[in-house]
Write a structure and sequence with these properties.
Blueprint lengths: L29 H8 L29 E3 L6 H4 L13 E4 L3 H14 L3 E4 L14 E4 L6 E4 L4 E5 L4 H8 L16 H6 L8 H4 L6 E7 L5 E4 L5 H10 L5 E8 L5 E10 L3 H11 L7 E9 L14 E9 L3 H12 L6 E2 L2 E4 L4 H4 L9 E7 L4 H11 L9 E6 L21 E7 L6 H14 L20 H5 L4 H14 L15
Parallel strand pairs: 2-4, 3-4
Antiparallel strand pairs: 1-2, 5-6, 6-9, 7-8, 7-9, 10-12, 10-13, 10-14, 11-12, 11-16, 15-17, 16-17
Helix pairs in contact: 7-14, 8-11, 11-12
Length: 510
């Protein structure tokens, strides 16, 4: 099933090329790129001492509302497609679920075979490859969304995208805590925390506003879970990703927001030092209603990119303010004065036009990514980042981005969940895209950045930004506070003692 292309609002201000923000036109030659990246699948597919499971036509469950596919079947190749092309899945069987009962059938099949279960909606996050000994559940056919204007809530099925939610919520003047792009899956984003660059500092993580969810656990049961019925599982799933089962539906809160004062300012890469230094000082002065990020971007030399940015290294600052345009303009005045903008696209926009702020690519791309959390952004840290991705970089990376945290993101929610490391000041996200032969150099350059920022890093990570290079147990532990990780491992032992759900950033049973 092909992901839909989102038509961004052309009236929301200047927008960079939607398909090539990170030089994404190099997606050709993906197979060679995958080979160059190597196999990062991590732990074996079978349980300890077991042989990988095998599947035949006779094994396929009957009575599905969706469909079951074996390698070579029509539709198999489309179902395993991912947004991030550095990951290639080859499961022994796919259950393309159309209902929660299909997910139950998939889990029961895996239990009979002693196989692992993985779940795929859009595949934006690069994690372990799903190999022939495993069952892959795809949720793309489960996209129903119901909005309750009176309760200010949305209930979504497992495969719903943020665009599906927004299409319904804006009718009632409500907005969700979506990410930077509307083509990401709601459930995967939310169970990894869910960091909204539009409203996160004002309202916290998306996981903080979940009311309840339905989940199929390793025993094949379908459970409805909230903070009262099962506080442990509710805590674990919200922040624990896919480690505890397959979420088939979720209900969460919406916010009465119809407009944003938001957009991106683009400056020459030669002004990176001035702009990032202004940003560093500015973030300590803004209210929680202001969310922002700053990045160094290498723009592709293609006609669809606005002429002032085409083929250039640019410094960009993105902002989103929940308040009046007049107050917003006053707040961002120090940024506008930092250097002469090549493009200034900050203005009042309807909430539905939020994709124009980050203008993320909509087409699949082979992206290698790394992440860290920073406790502070110092002049020395800015120098390190400019050296890594600026005009004189030895090997130019496609993007280095910092998102300001703090505000509500730094506070504990009313109902506890597993989203950890709330004391960080910024996320650091490094992405690289290039020719297949560049894969090793991209990975090396990213590793150099991660090591260079250690003096200002917390040593922890945000799980939704973790990549295929971060699947080792010691890396996964860094996504959680020690006490939270211990609790998660204990809950895992209770609900998934055989670690069926292990093809992820895995939390093993304690």
């Amino acid at each position: 099933m092909k992901e839909r292309t989102v038509n961004l609002n052309p009236n929301a201000g200047p927008t960079v090329h939607r398909r090539a923000v990170l030089g994404m036109g190099v997606a050709a030659g993906t197979a060679s790129f995958l080979a160059a990246c190597g196999d990062e699948s991590g732990t074996p597919q079978g349980g300890a001492g077991s042989s990988p499971a095998t599947f035949s036509r006779a094994d396929l469950p009957s009575g599905l509302r969706g469909k079951a596919l074996l390698p070579g079947d029509a539709g198999y190749a489309d179902e395993v497609k991912t947004y991030n092309l550095t990951v290639q899945h080859r499961p022994g069987v796919i259950i393309a679920a159309a209902a929660a009962s299909d997910v139950q059938a998939a889990v029961r099949l895996a239990a009979e075979k002693g196989a692992a279960v993985a779940v795929l909606a859009t595949g934006h996050q690069a994690i372990r490859s799903v190999e022939p000994g495993a069952v892959l559940v795809t949720t793309r056919a489960m996209r129903n969304v119901e909005v309750d204007p009176a309760k200010r809530t949305a209930r979504v099925q497992a495969g719903a995208l943020w665009q599906n939610v927004i299409d319904e919520s804006v009718k009632s003047g409500l907005a969700p805590l979506a990410g930077s792009t509307p083509i990401v899956g709601v459930v995967g984003y939310t169970v990894g925390g869910g960091l909204s660059p539009m409203m996160g500092r004002a309202h916290g993580y998306a996981a903080d506003h979940v009311r309840n969810f339905e989940i199929v656990t390793a025993d094949g049961a379908l459970r409805t879970v909230d903070a009262k019925t099962d506080p442990d599982l509710f805590f674990a799933v919200l922040g624990g990703k896919s480690n505890f089962g397959v979420v088939t539906a979720m209900e969460f809160g919406l916010f009465p927001v119809t407009k944003l004062f938001a957009g991106a300012m683009f400056f020459s890469g030669q002004d990176a030092k001035k702009v990032l230094e202004a940003y560093r000082k500015w973030v300590s002065t803004v209210p929680d209603a202001m969310s922002s990020s700053a990045a160094l971007l290498r723009m592709p030399d293609v006609e669809a990119v606005p002429a002032p940015l085409r083929g250039q290294l640019v410094t960009t600052v993105r902002v989103s303010y929940l308040g009046s345009p007049a107050t917003g303009a006053r707040l961002i005045a120090p940024l506008r004065a930092a250097a002469k903008p090549l493009i200034d696209g900050v203005r009042e926009i309807p909430f539905a036009a939020f994709p124009s702020v980050h203008a993320d690519p909509v087409d699949p791309v082979p992206a290698i990514e790394r992440t860290a959390l920073l406790r502070e952004l110092t002049p020395e840290a800015i120098d390190v980042l400019i050296a890594a991705a600026g005009p004189k970089a030895a090997f130019p990376l496609s993007m280095i981005e910092m998102r300001q945290l703090g505000g509500a993101l730094g506070r504990q929610p009313a109902t506890p969940n597993a989203v950890s490391n709330r004391d960080a000041a910024f996320t650091l996200f490094v992405a690289g895209v290039g020719r297949p032969t560049d894969a090793a150099a991209i990975a090396a350059a990213q590793e150099a950045v991660i090591k260079a920022v250690q003096p200002w890093a917390t040593g922890q990570m945000f799980v939704n930004f973790m990549a295929a290079a971060d699947v080792a147990p010691e890396a996964v532990r860094r996504a959680y506070q020690p006490q939270a990780y211990q609790r998660l491992a204990a809950i895992k032992r209770k609900v998934d003692p055989n670690n069926m759900f292990r093809l992820n950033h895995n939390i093993a049973p304690a």
